[in-house]
Design goal:
alpha/beta; Elastase, domain 1; 2 domains; two-stranded antiparallel ribbon; binds zinc ion
């Protein structure tokens, strides 16, 4: 399907301007891995140095680094902050080809993974800076000009910290070797954290509501999900498999997965705030009602755009609303979508890209307006509705209100944070702290 430059969006630098990378939209060890996609990132060809590196970030692959950055106990009850930069020895960096591009590296080499990690971070930053309308200033900029993206092979995790994104790799119980440097989902999620830290400055000592911690994970997942739909193969793949019936499709809404069985969380979930009145254990669970609300808002906006463009009828859209969360949804709705999609797959792709870009712009406009101590889900959806007033004149206000109520947001108090004793290990790329550093809680 030829979607033309409009699909790649206003975001994507065009040929002869940016720098080329090969990125896997999904972790390549999964069954439905697909091929890597050629992606252009914004720095001019020739301007990205060894590492890769540019003026905002650099990749290094340390030799002999044993612990992640973070806070560690020091002598006499003190705390030591172990932080960038790494000044020890390094593996050979990825080097550009003669044209200044990085899509020539051999898959399986450390240099391929180094370039892949840079490409994922840079691609994500490019897209969200475009949604924001100006560069994203790192929250650690008073101390560091550049983000250090580094590998800590053997760590079963990835962290966004103060001045760094640290990337592990490990072997699963099944024996699969997982390299987080090849996981676009995970790296985009970490960039999502850096984006909210940049936009929401939290002074030391600020009292935060519990929902802030759920919001933080939810926002990072939204960044990952929206960014991943800039891969043409991902967007077309979602549509080809679902025919546009996104409520019952499960590729879009699976994140941070490291194997087909290890599904960490769902965007298309049915959790409400009523599920958390007794308390919560993991921030990713607490995130689910908010992520679910935004996912459903996104799908509803997609349906509105399909109606506007004559790709589905208003009757189909109304029926979809009525049946949402009904067990018969799939059986009743799928034939309508099969039929409509077959008539104009390209129109569906353009509509999904439009809904994606609307969500990206509206979400980042919402985040930048949030006041840290007031952050809870009700406040976030209120600000999101105000942003909608400004962007569309309130056209999606009804959709926002319906999804807020369906998730019981603002109707229940969240219970206390409960001990982790009964919970499984925290997810593969979790972190703590308030944008200063995230290591230390597991
Ligand atoms: Zn996270």
């Amino acid at each position: 399907m030829d979607l033309g430059p409009k699909f790649q969006g206003r975001h994507m630098p065009t040929e002869h301007r940016g720098t080329r990378f090969l990125l896997f939209p999904q972790l390549p060890s999964l069954e439905q891995q697909g091929e890597p996609e050629t992606v252009w990132v914004s720095p001019l060809a020739g301007s990205v140095g060894p590492g890769p590196s540019d003026d905002r970030m650099y990749v290094i692959d340390p030799i002999g680094k044993e612990q992640p950055y973070g806070y560690y106990p020091g002598p006499n009850g003190t705390t030591v902050h172990y932080k960038p930069p790494w000044n020890g020895p390094l593996l050979e960096p990825a080097l550009p080809d003669e044209g200044g591009h990085f899509d020539h590296l051999e898959f399986g080499s450390p240099q391929f993974e180094q370039a892949h990690a840079y490409g994922c971070v840079r691609f994500t930053v490019d897209i969200w800076e475009d949604y924001l309308g100006h560069p994203i200033e790192w929250h650690f900029e008073p101390e560091y000009d550049q983000l250090e993206i580094l590998f800590l092979r053997g760590m079963d995790n990835a962290y966004a910290g103060y001045g760094s994104v640290e990337i592990g790799s490990y072997t699963t119980k099944k024996g699969d070797f997982v390299q987080f440097g090849l996981s676009f989902d995970v790296l985009a999620h970490e960039v999502g954290h850096l984006i909210t830290y940049s936009l929401i400055h939290i002074p030391d000592g600020t009292e935060l509501q519990d929902e802030y911690f759920g919001f933080r994970e939810s926002a990072a997942d939204m960044v990952s999900m929206i960014t991943s739909l800039h891969f043409e193969t991902a967007l077309i793949g979602v549509l080809e498999a679902s025919h546009g019936n996104l409520y019952t499709y499960n590729r879009l809404n699976r994140f941070g997965e490291v194997s087909d069985l290890d599904q960490l969380r769902l965007a298309s979930n049915q959790k409400t705030m009523a599920d958390f009145t007794k308390g919560w254990v993991r921030e990713h669970q607490l995130a689910q009602p908010l992520t679910g609300a935004f996912f459903d808002i996104w799908v509803d906006i997609f349906h509105e755009i399909l109606v506007e463009r004559g790709l589905i009828t208003r009757e189909v859209e109304v029926l979809s609303d009525q049946l949402e969360w009904n067990p018969d949804y799939h059986d009743v709705m799928q034939p309508f979508f099969d039929d409509a999609y077959a008539k104009n797959p390209q129109g569906f792709a353009m509509a999904l890209a439009a809904a994606r870009d609307h969500m990206g712009t509206a979400l980042i406009s919402t985040w930048r307006r949030l006041v840290p101590q007031r952050i809870n889900y009700l406040e976030i959806l209120s600000v999101f509705a105000q942003v909608d007033e400004q962007i569309t004149g309130g056209r999606y206000g009804h959709i926002i209100a319906v999804n807020k109520d369906r998730r019981r947001i603002g109707q229940y108090e969240v219970g206390p944070k409960l001990p982790k004793s009964s919970s499984k290990k925290e997810d593969k790329h979790s972190h703590n702290g308030l944008g200063t550093d995230e290591h230390g809680e597991e």
